[in-house]
Amino acid sequence: MARCSVCGKPAVYVNRAAGLALCQRHFLEYFDRKVRRTIRKYKLFRPREHIVVAVSGGKDSMALLHYLHNLAKRVPGWRVTALLVDEGIRGYREYTVKRLVDYAEEHGIEYHIARFKDYVGYTLDEIVRRGRELGLPYLPCTYCGVLRRYIMNRAAREIGATVIATGHNLDDIVQTFLMNILGNDWAKIVRLGPISGPASHPRFVRKVKPFYEVLEKETTLYAVIHGLYTGFEECPYAQMSIRWTVRRMINELEERSPGVKYSLLRSLETAINMLRRQGIGEPDEEEGLYSCALCGEPAAHPICRACQLRLQLGIMEVSPEKLESLPPEARRMAESALRLSEERSRRR
Ligand SMILES: [Zn+2]
Ligand SMILES: [Zn+2]
Fold it and tell me: For 201-216, what is each residue's pLDDT tens digit?
């Protein structure tokens, strides 16, 4: 059995790439050092912050809530609130909502739940069904990703957040990096840094990733140690996604040559720097270039992605007068989305 490199007690954590083995106590110290170093290095937080932790109920975001709640006790200007977006996936979401509510009440943490149903009128299950009926070319994760981000930003702003912290770990980030390379989507790669978003748009709440340099196996162990991991994790739609395959592939590579994940993260940073220098996909030019002509939220186009999807699904009402009053480019986008929806409905 491996022994702790610091004190010689039985190790609970082994990192082959770093030649490191740690007992529980020294793992927790190592974890804390790593996250604090990330926060300092990338200047993720300011002296006064209302931090909204985006909680999915999964182990990573629960670990982040636990971590930041405890860290904030030592920082006088910080306040931490949990925010969960409930997309209404039956047989999955009920459990994670309960996990958050139980945990928050036990630790006296403020929390909010923002429901798809309240913000867009439909649950994700209903939206996925409708998209299938209409034959729209999207995977469930597209609807979920776009609408979740949209609702997260709106709800966080309504709560008064100055920053949103998400539980993305190193594994998540390098998976997305690889997926974007596969899709030749370099503008998205620029946004994979530890701080993201069009900070200059008045309605945008900036997003930070305190677990940017932390491996998934580390956030998992941290969650297990603090009793935040109950094993019920995977979204039922996850296995339909490309991410599933990419994740398995990277894990196999890491198994064969330890350190590949870190190396991918460094490649990502190099890519971000090179892209920035060329002015490709600067955050301010991307998502915050427009205010959506229909809902007013920050958008990369005259009509935001969330409104485009809602129009295509036929779940958003736009009166002829409203349509008439839109600027030309926005009007064209809205009309083509509405037309698509109508054509598909007629074909059924
Ligand atoms: Zn030790
Ligand atoms: Zn919109």
Answer: 888 999 999 999 999 9
Ion ligand 2 neighbours, Cβ < 5 Å: 292, 294-295, 304, 307
CA 108 vs. chain centroid, Å, equals 24
- C-alpha to C-alpha distance for 259 and 283, rounded to whole angstroms: 29
Distance 25 CA to ligand 1 centre (A): 6
Q: Model confidence over 246-292: pLDDT tens digits? A: 999 999 999 999 999 999 999 999 999 998 888 776 654 556 678 99
Question: Residue 287: enclosing H or E segment and its boundaries?
Answer: none
Nearest to 103 by CA among 4, 11, 218, 230: 230
Cα of 23 from ligand 1 centre, angstroms: 4
Q: What amino acid is encoded at 52 in this protein?
A: V
CA of 299 to the centre of ligand 2 (A): 7
Q: Which residues surround ligand 1, an ion (CB under 5 A)?
A: 4, 6-7, 9, 23, 26
pTM over 0.85: yes
Of the listed ligands, the closest to the CA of 7 is 1
**Amino acid present at 339:** R
DSSP symbols for 36-94: HHHHHHTT---SSEEEEEEE-SSHHHHHHHHHHHHHHTT-TTEEEEEEEEE---TTTHH
For residue 206, the tally of other CB atoms under 10 A from its CB is 17
Any idea which ligand is nearest the CA of 28?
Answer: 1
Annotation: CATH topology of 42-285: Rossmann fold (3.40.50)
Please tell me the distance between residue 60's alpha carbon and the centre of ligand 1 in angstroms: 24
Q: With beta carbons less than 8 A apart as the criterion, state whether 49 and 79 touch.
A: yes
Answer yes or no: are the C-beta atoms of 322 and 329 closer than 8 Å. Answer: no
Ligand nearest to the CA of 308: 2
Counting ligands in written order, the one closest to the CA of 119 is: 2
Average pLDDT over the chain, rounded to whole? Answer: 90
Q: Where exactly are the structural domains of the chain?
A: 1-35, 42-285, 290-347
Q: How many CB atoms lie within 10 A of CB 9?
A: 14
| Model pLDDT for residues 109-123, shown as the tens digit of each residue | 999 999 999 999 999
